């Protein structure tokens, strides 16, 4: 059981083409991955990206008023695959337990959209469509690399807004997401308060404080140390990408996004054939497992995209004087979901958000999601909250 | 105030020659740094180290029975400077608030010893005396580098035992330390139960579980990525040590050993002249501060010693089948002190230790140490527990 949960957690963090095979009712919908293209996008920092392409998927039907839409925003290492399957026998999306026909977020009632962000991490997984440093810079005919403009989290929202406009969406019954998806939901609520009825940030924070900024700097530091990084210029033929550095970066994310019980099964055993008591280079079994899992993920990811994702998070709500200034713009109902054993956005971040919303007079529900996976309980353990979510949507 | 606490915390983690200048009564003792040498030491892994030298300091007087001794074991980035000053006007030791004449650990009553561990981190601070990879390997006439034998935490205790024997100590009224010092105190309690009356592990754990093993692997990974690391062979003239990797490693320790309030004063400001919204290489002020603090620490530390310290921690209680098997050997009274906002040894580690000791029928007190510094509250915030410690010592 613990092994299955750990596997699920590792996979949930990986490219979603390898997402957790959560047991589902037979009704899981087949969804299609589509591509949205938009041109002449000017970033919040003032740079122009001539062409942007991002992947997305939908379920359900938009009503004539265009007001039964739900957008699901993804976590740091996720993509659009929040619900449904791309084909029979393929894995279901990470929140499929709460999104689908008859489920908490009922696709018989709501038109549900989820898209890949800009600078998405999973650029080599064969499913993710994104624009970022790996994309062709039309001015040079080569990948942008670090010439790609800095992307703020608000840019994620602006591109999603163009996608929603193209689909005819006028109102959002709900904006929701886990972790970085929660940050996006909050950024949405501040950016477009007049079009949003409800916000459900899961395992998130309304404040990206210096502590969080520092941690994300720690996450990316192995990439900058890898001699193959070469200041982001590693796409040319014959060059090796900074896979080791990226793997170490992903390892930090993997461990911090879980909790003690998720690794307990490894005990304190040495890796096979290794002797940590006698050889300084030898490894424990848990280290070997994490090395291999991180390397597998690094092979479908891109190091520059990791740096840009970090920066987008560090620039969360960067256009507002404070979290209070941002949240005070929202007129929505809120449902904050936190994991008490979260080591990324600790419980305090969430309870502070609830207290702030209450101080601002906003209606706010609060629930805890539990399990052995720490932060990731909010990705793989949401099923027990289905009734709470359903009730929230009926208010 | 916050600035002072942050500074204190950063310095507490740094070489203790730069330790926090905590306001003290005038009575702080002048202590002398001495050197203990022992030969022909066989590690628990079976390798021989021909000569070991470690620094130590004492205060108070050993009684005729040799049973009024206290040993204070240091944290990961600490050294013997737990109490006293090396000269008037110099900074006091990190626990000087609770160790000294008339203080909780009263040097008028107890003979207090604290020593530098093997493979101590602060090899270039001018105060620390240790033996490890930087030391001369008599077989080659060059530094051992990664040929130095692996050191287990039990080896720390064995060398300290030789030191205590040389001083005539027969019983320990108390073994205590913070963080890695708590682990050493527990290792002492398991190794020499018949000579220990009391154990006070502060911000520690009785279990170094796979989660902790994984985190320490994360701590050291920047060193292994630094191209200057060269598999530990960087002592030759003309070679640069892996200072960047070591600085990034120390940065992780610094951040994880504190808590959100300790960094709050930086806000979300860009570093001077930097623009994180427009240039991907630009930094936030908190990042710049942490970069500089980490680099300053790296310059007085050694990367190979960092790796060996990590391994010593990962090998905590490695000779016992379980924490329960180790702790069941102890006949001592226990006083467990935890910081509720600890991000290294979270509160759970400490409450589990208390529960285990109670299950084993051992007398155990428990107290929390609070403040804005997370884990480091147990290093710089112990003064309010003085009466509890005094009471513990009188039982």
UniProtKB/TrEMBL annotation, chains A, B:
Identify the domain of life.
Bacteria
> Mind listing the UniProt keywords for this protein, alphabetically?
Acyltransferase, Amino-acid biosynthesis, Cytoplasm, Signal, Transferase
Residues of the signal peptide? 1-23
List the HAMAP family: MetX_acyltransf
What is its EC class? transferase
Descriptive protein name = Probable acyltransferase
Q: Which organism is it from?
A: Falsiroseomonas stagni DSM 19981
- PANTHER family assigned to the protein according to its UniProt record, in alphabetical order: HOMOSERINE O-ACETYLTRANSFERASE
**Example GO biological process:** methionine biosynthetic process
Main subcellular localisation: cytoplasm
Q: Which GO terms describe its cellular component?
A: cytoplasm
Q: Does the keyword Magnesium apply?
A: no
State whether it acts alone or in a complex, and with which partners, per the record. Homodimer.
Membership in a protein family: Belongs to the AB hydrolase superfamily. MetX family.
EC number(s) on file: 2.3.1.-
Active-site feature positions = 179, 342, 375
Compartments annotated for it: namely: Cytoplasm
- The record places domain AB hydrolase-1 at 142-297
Q: Which GO terms describe its molecular function?
A: homoserine O-acetyltransferase activity
């Amino acid at each position: 059981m613990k092994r299955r949960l750990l596997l699920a957690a590792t996979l949930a963090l990986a490219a979603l083409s390898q997402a957790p095979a959560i047991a589902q009712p037979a009704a899981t919908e087949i969804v299609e991955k589509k591509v949205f293209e938009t041109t002449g996008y000017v970033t919040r920092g003032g740079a122009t990206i001539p062409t942007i392409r991002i992947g997305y998927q939908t379920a359900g039907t938009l009503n004539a008023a265009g007001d039964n839409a739900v957008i699901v925003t993804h976590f740091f290492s996720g993509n659009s695959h929040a619900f449904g399957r791309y084909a029979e026998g393929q894995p279901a999306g990470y929140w499929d337990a709460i999104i689908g026909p008859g489920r908490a977020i009922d696709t018989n009632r709501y038109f549900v959209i989820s898209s890949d962000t800009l600078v998405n991490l999973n650029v080599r997984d064969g499913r993710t469509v994104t624009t970022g440093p790996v994309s062709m810079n039309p001015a040079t005919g080569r990948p942008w690399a670090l010439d790609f403009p800095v992307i703020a989290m608000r840019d994620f929202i602006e591109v999603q807004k163009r996608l929603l406009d193209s689909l005819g969406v006028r109102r959002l019954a709900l904006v929701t997401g886990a972790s970085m998806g929660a940050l996006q939901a909050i950024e949405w609520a501040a950016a477009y308060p007049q079009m949003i009825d409800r916000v459900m940030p899961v395992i998130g924070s309304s404040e990206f404080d210096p502590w969080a900024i520092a941690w994300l700097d720690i996450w990316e530091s192995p990439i900058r140390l890898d001699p193959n990084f070469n200041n982001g210029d590693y796409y040319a033929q014959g060059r090796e990408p900074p896979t080791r550095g990226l793997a170490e970066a992903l390892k930090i994310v993997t461990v911090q996004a879980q909790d003690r019980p998720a690794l307990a099964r490894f005990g304190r055993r040495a890796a096979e054939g290794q002797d940590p008591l006698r050889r300084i280079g030898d490894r424990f079994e848990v280290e070997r497992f994490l090395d291999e899992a991180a390397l597998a993920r690094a092979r479908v990811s891109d190091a520059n995209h990791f740096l840009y994702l970090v920066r987008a998070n560090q620039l969360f709500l960067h256009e507002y004087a404070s979290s209070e200034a941002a949240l005070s713009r929202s007129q929505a109902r809120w449902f904050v979901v936190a994991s008490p054993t979260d080591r990324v956005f600790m419980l305090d971040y969430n309870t502070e958000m609830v207290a702030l919303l209450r101080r601002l007079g906003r209606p706010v529900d609060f629930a805890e999601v539990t399990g052995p996976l720490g932060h990731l309980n909010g990705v793989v353990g949401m099923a027990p909250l289905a009734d709470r979510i359903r009730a929230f949507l009926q208010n």
